[in-house]
Amino acid sequence: MSLTGIILAAGESRRMGTPKALLELDGETFLDRLILTLGGSCSSVIVVLGSEAQKIRAGLRSADQATFVNNVDYERGQLSSLQCGLAAVPSEADGVMFTLVDHPGVLPSTVARIARRFHERTPQESLVIPCRGRKRGHPVCVARELIPEFLALPSDAQARDVIHRHREHAVYMDVEDNGILDDVDDPETYQRLTGRAPLPEGE
User: Fold this and answer.
1) Is residue 203 a part of any domain in this protein?
2) Residue 84 lies in a domain
3) Is 43 among the domain residues?
4) Digit-coded pLDDT (tens) for 90-136
5) Is residue 48 part of a domain?
6) DSSP string, the chain
7) Count of domains in the chain?
8) What is the pLDDT of residues 30-62, one digit of tens each?
9) Residue 52 belongs to domain spanning
């Protein structure tokens, strides 16, 4: 079995004021970190870019370890980016593991556990979702047979609509990793995570 990782990094980062993909955690950009983390458990990694795509690619060290797709309609929101990524999944992939670029703190060991559980799933299980306590996090693993349902969603829908539809076939896996929940979406959250504020745009 093989998995394809998808990282959604197309948003405008309005609340952060600078591209979240290029913010650093432990000496690595968020996006570099996620490419390497997912790449350790996935056969291939797809990065969906949109806003400031050229700047983001130029600021990466691990660009050669991912395939990049551009969401020209990134202003339509997260679902449009996920659909772009899913449309590029290789035909040999048995499933996808997708996450958001603003969840950079997930541990490689956690990703490996999620992937292993996906590979061990029964025919009735089509989703693996990590949880911390009662909260669900990222990355989420989805079996290939659900991809057409995500692609068929209208623009005003959300990915969770498909997940909710198949909740009886989901594996909710408890993990001891706060990184699955850490949504670094504004300067205050970033400062709490790293102890420093993000640099303003252009610096």
Assistant:
1) no
2) yes
3) yes
4) 999 999 999 999 999 999 999 999 999 999 999 999 999 999 988 99
5) yes
6) --EEEEEEE-S--TTTSS-GGG-EETTEEHHHHHHHHHHTT-SEEEEEEBTBHHHHHHT-S-GGGSEEEE-TTGGG-HHHHHHHHHHT--TT-SEEEEEETT-TT--HHHHHHHHHHHHT--TT--EEEEEETTEE-S-EEEEGGGHHHHHT--TT--HHHHHHHTGGGEEEEE-S-GGGT----SHHHHHHHHSSPPPPTT-
7) 1
8) 999 999 999 999 999 999 999 999 999 999 999
9) 3-194
